[in-house]
Amino acid sequence: AQKITQTQPGMFVQEKEAVTLDCTYDTSDPSYGLFWYKQPSSGEMIFLIYQGSYDQQNATEGRYSLNFQKARKSANLVISASQLGDSAMYFCATNTDKLIFGTGTRLQVFP
Amino acid sequence: NAGVTQTPKFRVLKTGQSMTLLCAQDMNHEYMYWYRQDPGMGLRLIHYSVGEGTTAKGEVPDGYNVSRLKKQNFLLGLESAAPSQTSVYFCASRDFNRGNYEQYFGPGTRLTVT
């Protein structure tokens, strides 16, 4: 069975600083994907970044990068140059046919 | 394209009442999903479908039924609502292409069972 663990219920970061949100995963599938989603207070789920298990390079999307360490089964999200609008819940997830989510990390960015 | 839409956006039910949540997508996606989100629990998969006419159970299927009679629609039914089913329900869809794993989410339905 697949499982996602996010051990940080909440994180604080100052504006313009970088922050790392932790995610570890457990899956027996040889091929899988890892995702990060952002959920602002308005409630919608916003796709941020995707990493395939066979991708050789870490995924990047603008200010978001995914630090993928396959041997450690970790897929941490790095947000560079934090902005006030980054304050939200962040969910890590993994899938083959179905998407399994972690419990999320609440990020708060302060001026 | 409207993407993924959900009907209704809000609903209050009394214990024992039934209702159906409708999810519609206009992206011709094969895969569709229903999740529930409770405070502090993240999203948990209720049921999913890998194509028209097929459904499968997720992590928390008890108390729910689903149907996928048309490719673009995925219905979630509560036959006899219970207070434990108070939650926010999200629908999502995904292309069959295994190179494109992104799931597209609807805006959510907030359900309260009293």
The major β-sheet of chain B equals:
7 strands, mixed
Radius of gyration of chain A: 13 Å
Largest sheet of chain A: 6 strands, mixed
Span from first to last CA of chain A?
Answer: 41 Å
Strand content of chain A: over 45%
Q: Structural class of the secondary elements of chain B?
A: mainly beta
Q: Tell me the β content of chain B.
A: over 45%
Could you name the ranges of chain A where pLDDT drops below 50 across 5 or more consecutive residues?
Answer: none
Structural class of chain A: mainly beta
Q: State the helical fraction of chain B.
A: under 10%
Q: Can you tell me the overall shape of chain B?
A: globular
Oligomer state of the chains in this structure: heterodimer
Give the overall silhouette of chain A: globular
- Determine the fraction of residues in helical runs of chain A and give it as a percent range: under 10%
Overall pLDDT score of chain B: 92
Rg of chain B from C-alpha positions? Answer: 13 Å
Name the poorly predicted regions of chain B. none
Would you report the number of β strands of chain A? 12
Number of helices of chain B: 0
Features:
heterodimer; A: 111 residues; mainly beta; six-stranded mixed β-sheet; globular; B: 114 residues; seven-stranded mixed β-sheet
Structure overview:
The complex is a heterodimer of chains A (111) and B (114). Chain A is mostly beta strands and 111 residues long. Chain A contains no helices and twelve strands. In chain A, strands 2, 5, 6, 10, 11 and 12 form a six-stranded mixed beta sheet that branches. Chain A has a four-stranded antiparallel beta sheet with strand order 3-9-8-7, with no helix packed on it. In chain A, strands 1-4 form a two-stranded antiparallel ribbon. Chain A is globular. The N and C termini of chain A lie far apart (41 Å). The model of chain A has no long low-confidence stretch (mean pLDDT 93). Chain B is mainly beta and 114 residues long. Chain B has no helices and eleven strands. Chain B has strands at residues 4-7, 10-13, 19-25, 31-37, 43-49, 56-57, 65-67, 73-78, 87-94, 104-105, 109-113. In chain B, strands 2, 4, 5, 6, 9, 10 and 11 form a seven-stranded mixed beta sheet that branches. A four-stranded antiparallel beta sheet of chain B has the order 1-3-8-7, with no helix packed on it. Chain B is globular, with a radius of gyration of 13 Å. The termini of chain B are far apart. The chains are: A mainly beta (111), B mainly beta (114). The A-B interface holds A 33, 35, 43-45, 47, 50, 52, 91, 93, 95, 97-104 and B 31, 33, 35, 40-45, 48, 50, 58-59, 88, 90, 92, 101-105, 107-108.
